[in-house]
Specification:
With 117 residues, this protein is mainly β. It has no helices and eleven strands. The strands form two sheets. Strands 2, 4, 5, 6, 9, 10 and 11 form a seven-stranded mixed β-sheet that branches. A four-stranded antiparallel β-sheet has the order 1-3-8-7, with no helix packed on it. The radius of gyration is 14 Å and the shape is globular.
Length: 117
């Protein structure tokens, strides 16, 4: 089965940077959309950034101009470069891939990002 493994989370001071990675392992499949979501304590999960196989990207207004999503299709890996981090960015971040074979969605286990003030 496909499993998404995330890395790169941690503790950083406000204004700092962090880079998250998410790589698919298991069955050799390709993906269409790759995305990042996050969930802060007491709040619902929301999308942060999305990347399509066609090369387009989109960002939530709260992170636009600060976060950058990128992908390496050969490695089935997606990245999220986060800069100018704010305490309100503190959340568990999840990656999400959409299979190009059957459209199924796969989720990572989540990685904690904590931004101190």
């Amino acid at each position: 089965q496909v499993q998404l493994v995330e890395s790169g989370g941690g503790l950083v001071q406000a204004g700092g940077s962090l880079r998250l990675s998410c790589a698919a392992s298991g069955s050799p499949v390709s993906f269409n959309r790759m995305a990042w979501y996050r969930q802060a304590p007491g709040k619902q999960r929301g999308w942060v950034a999305i990347s399509t196989a066609g090369g387009s990207t989109d960002y939530a207004s709260s992170v636009k101009d600060r976060f950058t999503i990128s992908r390496d299709n050969a490695k089935n890996t997606v990245y999220l470069q986060m800069t100018s981090l704010k305490p309100e960015d503190t959340a568990v971040y999840y990656c999400c891939f959409e299979s190009s074979q059957d459209g199924k969605t796969y989720w990572g286990q989540g990685t904690q990002v904590t931004v101190s003030s």
